[in-house]
Write the structure tokens for this entry.
Amino acid sequence: MNVPLLDLKAQHRAIKDAVVSRVMALVESQLFILGKPVQDLEARIAELSHAAFGVGVASGTDALLLPLRALDLKAGDEVITVPFTFFATAGAIHNAGGRPVFVDIERDTYNMDPALVEAAITPRTRAIMPVHLFGQMAAMERLLEVAERHGIPVIEDAAQAIGARRKLDGRWRMAGELGAVTGFSFFPSKNLGAWGDGGMVVSNDQGFAERVRRLRSHGGVQMYHHDEVGTNSRLDALQAAVLLAKLPYLEGWSAARRANAARYIEGLAGVSAVRTPVTDPANEHIYNQFVIEVDRRDQLQAHLKAKEIGTAIYYPLALHLQPCFTYLGHRPGAFPVSEAATGRVLALPVYPELSQPQQEFVVDAIKGFYGD
């Protein structure tokens, strides 16, 4: 039985007519830059995120880079983030002119450990950028408490967490609602994926949103008039059309991922060598990835590959040990929780169209490897 890590063809078959209809309407209009599809998507994603403003940008990376540029970072300015995440998180800080300052992650959720943040703040700290990793939110209420005490904005990296939410004081709060500004990614593998790159910035701060909107269009809001030097980072209208067609299915897809995750957790409960994901009780997880920790990870991955089961390692090398960040001066052992995770994590297929027989095949293959 073949079980890919992600099956976008299965998703497309189920919604083909709706997507193609929207795309062909755009083709007939011949209006491909910004316009109504982008405006409609900006409004819908802002509404989903309980935010007032949405700004479509060219990629999830730019959805982090442009808000950081809006902070007008100077050489030596610092942004606190985590070393266990996709490269774009720290790469955007560097490319915006800042210096990444890492703090370690929580053992259970892989998200930023709020207890470590205050000690990392210096007079040069300009922002805190937690990552809602794998689809569940960081402990925003604790991070905001620290940030507010020091007058520092929180920028949410929600590239993997669109639609994720956290219950605070009896009320659901969305990824994108609590921080000063938030970046989402529409990379095809995300829960809401485009047919290429795309991203969205959301904020409840009108000034922040307007600055990002200006930066994405060469630094101006009026054609051929430029208030500052920006860049070309407009969300493609074609991608907006695809995403508008997919958006009504997002909630159901995330629910299906949670159901698949629950089956894995139940099926692997008796395997002592496997640690299944831990969800903070305050969170509703959307499982952009289902990541287990295992003994003999590389051997297990090879075993599953031989059985045509797709897996991936998110992430094999923590950011503080990447060659491009040697200038930060970190050595192995600096962030032990992150470093331990890099040697044990393995993502299993969790996409909504995954069938129960496919899941049982994956579980049986893992049990067989460990002799359980």
